[in-house]
Amino acid sequence: MILVVGGGVSGxxxxxxxxxxxxxxxxxxxxxxxxGLCRSFQVRGYTFDYSGHLLCVKDEGVLEWIQDLLHGQMSxxxxxxxxxxxxxxxxxxxxxxxxxLPQELMEECLGDFLKxxxxxxxxxxxxxxxxxxxxxxxxxxxxxxxxFIPYNEKLFGRPLKELVPxxxxxxxxxxxxxxxxxxxxxxxxxxxxxxxxxxxxxxxGIEEIPKAIASRLKSARFGCQLKKVLLEEKKAVLESGEEVxxxxxxxxxxxxxxxxLLDPSxxxxxxxxxxxxxVSVRVLNLGVRRQGISDQHWVYFPEKEFPFFRVGCYSAFxxxxxxxxxxxxxxxxxxxxxxxxGEENCTRKTLHGLVRCGILRSAxxxxxxxxxxxxxxxxxxxxxxxxxxxxxxxxxxxWGIHCAGRYGSWGYGTMEDAIIQGKEAASRLxx
Length: 431
Ligand SMILES: Cc1cc2nc3c(=O)[nH]c(=O)nc-3n(C[C@H](O)[C@H](O)[C@H](O)COP(=O)(O)OP(=O)(O)OC[C@H]3O[C@@H](n4cnc5c(N)ncnc54)[C@H](O)[C@@H]3O)c2cc1C
Prior knowledge:
This protein is of the alpha/beta class.
């Protein structure tokens, strides 16, 4: 019997494969419903997700599978995203659209980029050691100073010299010198990056995807929390005290949480609990009494005066997500910022920031404020993680535990990655 722990998209996809192949399995999920971070919430006519969750695919097979599950009820979008810097809305990716900056700033960014590109081609090019250095050697100092460094330091709440690029660099578009120069001259480079195109359900929120997968499963228990893993006996102890024997486990719950449940607790697991770090995010979902509030799907905010790092517009993914004549937003604020400022003050400054950049005309337009907390949102990619992760995964596999999903495998990945990882973990066990 294969025990799948966690009913987000990775656990559900793993269970789907096991079900399809007639393998005995049980999926357990601590919440009362499926979906994990892909759940949605209905509040006074608005549908909010756990902040914007848009499906971007590299593997058309994943899209076909989801289209099939949702009977073709998915819409496709060409991304409209930007970065708000010094009062300018620079189309994403910043580094390929410098022509949208004030002239002086554009010249500084382009000049530094070209200097750096020339250096990179020289035989003495420096090799990247930390995320900050990697960004500077890739894009030049000015682009980093105005966007990458303040944005990432705001999100991760620490200097970038403490982070490494491995595991996150795939998400950062690296345009050619020609694209950067053309962008500085005013050409709009919008089709770069993994999320240039995305998909979203035509009805309901992103939750339609996990709901559709869950409806195909015969052996899933919700409201059922894993409390302890008896390693030697291969037994999972549930919150109710019930013990479930397994031959193998697929864990999609946050890795430090799993390590803390192991009994007996091996030294490598204790080391993982101490060393692995993450940041939480508070999502302020807003219902706004005005139609067409923004033509952007989402906007990045690197500047310190804004407590949030990203704002997105749900109602731009489909009018069904907000009542007629209204719009809806998600505002993502790092947990460390909320702790420093206090919740109330942070909400006030957030609304003030939205007015200041022009997304809101006035805070009085907001008729619904629906906050959600993502306690484990972004994994910290530092040297300790890089060193420990392969060792921890090997140890867990020796005990019959296979990790999958963004938090199970403790990385930075999309819904598609989580789906693929869940399916792959199941396929490996099916042999
Ligand atoms: C702010 C933010 C925005 C994002 N936006 C996007 C986006 O636009 N597009 C995109 O593709 N991806 C996005 N992602 C990433 C996406 O959320 C993840 O890749 C995906 O949801 C991970 O799914 P999962 O199943 O691996 O994990 P989860 O969804 O976290 O599922 C894990 C499940 O385990 C359960 N669980 C935990 N502990 C226990 C326990 N002890 N016992 C039983 N169950 C337990 C949890 O309740 C949860 O349901 C975003 C992530 C964040 C944080």
